[in-house]
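Next comes this protein:
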Amino acid sequence: MTGTLRRFKTICLVTSLSLVLPAMPASAVIPDNLNDLVYQSSAWGNDQLRTRGYTFINSDYHNGKLFEYWWQNRSNTCIQTRAVDGKYEAIKVTANTDCNQYQKSASDKDNTAAAVAIGAAAIIGVAALAHNSHHRDDKHGQDSKSVAEFDRGYRDGLYGQAYHNYSNTTAYSDGYNSGNQDRYERTSYRPQDGRYSGYHPYVSLDDLVGASAASADSQLRSRGFRDVGGYKQANKSFVTWYNRNTRQCVSSVTRDGRIKRIDSLNEDNCT
């Protein structure tokens, strides 16, 4: 009776795992009928994908690039588009799980594979993966345990948990770094200086990124900042701004007449 119950639990666990671990595509290459979209406007490309039977699933901004996932029900195909500066840089077939499509059942023909899957299930707690394949940068996607280790690291990094690589794997380490980076990008509206917390006054400048330098200059002054110096390097201009009321010290970086980023600096750089 005990043996039967153990086998039943094993089958349930493997079956549950099949719902969450990604089924990797046979070849992560661009479909033949989408070649013409690469290097074209992503807005035009999005319209074309809809015309060709693809449905938009989700998107994520990562490492300065916009990743989008599209699903075509007719061919059961999930594709990933990668855009930079409003143009498709690449398109490829990716795991169906990136489009929230999961297998309905699992085969237990290979006992070794099943054992690995069970171990991976224990690691991730039989829960949907927190990341898409672009977070792995095409690494750690060849076996379920590697994917699960990456995901555990990604979750720890994303939610600010302590680094705990008890399996000593590169997959966990890379996942943790990726999660940390995503946490930073998703909360970039917050000042990086820990002094700005609680009820401390603070002026947000996120909306100025991408604005013309002239407009940003006017906005910074109207928000209480003053120019305390700057310099040019290569094709970029760096200007340091200080707000005495909030004690914020920031540096605006301008290229081609537009603000590319605004960095928080230590107050000592402005006083």
